[in-house]
């Protein structure tokens, strides 16, 4: 360990490991402070966020503690959520792209343009008068920001969906949109991987989407690397979401393209379920998914995903043995 002087006021949280022993850590620059003298886990920090945040500010601005070099630590998923609320069809361009990709009757550029205009108008109407499309994911799908992703052998159409993830810091039940951001502790990165060929049930089309099969394989929710407090993120409606595959930029979109902003999503989720500290609300995927390019994840692919101010996760894909 080393003495780390003059830490920045900006900090983040995550879960780290030394010799497989996990602990919560306060991240300041390239150094980490072990928080086990205060809390046993990041989840425990979030359960008392109102008391914890000023303590974290004080710790981040003190040099009287033994700091550990970030490079000496393994980085785990920053937290283990109790609930994962996911948002579908929440980016205008993404929805338009998907609608066109799923149609095989668009044989001319004019037909594609007309279809895009039609779907775009529908999304504008939905944003003005509709409500978010929310569903649940399984916490068991959460993985670390640098873990390998094992591509399940039952699908060859596994796709990336880098998303801004909202971390709840105060209980929220049937709150208004105006109240919603007061219940947010911070933000992190999530790649909501999807098996595209399992989204729709072929045996009973009336059922519609099957998110259980298409989104919940082990490792399908890489999370992190850091949980950044809301005070350091600025406007969550003006962040850049960027994902590359083998160095090629696939997603590069602003959260400005969201149909329903963070406050609207958190409020809508709270109308149905009681949100608790540590719960995640995913905000949906921007455009640039593999299905739009006819290009899906393969063995050896490397995904790197970053969102303004939240760090970068790096996931290597492996075929299922």
In summary, what is this structure?
The chain is of the alpha+beta class and 321 residues long. The protein has helices spanning 42-47, 49-60, 92-101, 109-129, 177-180, 211-215, 262-270, 290-293, and strands at 2-3, 12-18, 21-28, 31-34, 66-69, 74-75, 84-88, 133-137, 142-143, 149-151, 158-159, 162-168, 184-191, 194-195, 221-222, 228-229, 240-245, 248-254, 280-282, 302-307, 312-319.
Write up this protein.
By secondary structure, the protein is an alpha+beta fold. The chain is 22% helix and 30% strand. It has a six-stranded antiparallel sheet. α3 crosses α4. It starts with a strand and ends with a strand. Keywords: Hydrolase, Metal-binding. This is Fumarylacetoacetate hydrolase family protein. It comes from Actinocorallia longicatena. Belongs to the FAH family.
The computed structural class is: alpha+beta
Rg result: 20 Å
* Spatial sequence of strands, sheet with the most strands: 1-5-4-3-2-6
Give the name of the CATH superfamily of the largest domain. Fumarylacetoacetase-like, C-terminal domain
**CATH fold topology of the largest domain:** Fumarylacetoacetate hydrolase, domain 2
What string, H for helix and E for strand, traces the elements in order?
Answer: EEEEHHEEEHHEEEEEHEEHEEEEHEHEE
Coarse morphology: globular
Low-confidence runs: 1-7
Count of discrete structural domains = 2
Family: Belongs to the FAH family.
Keywords: Hydrolase, Metal-binding
Domain Fumarylacetoacetase-like C-terminal: 84-314
GO molecular function: hydrolase activity
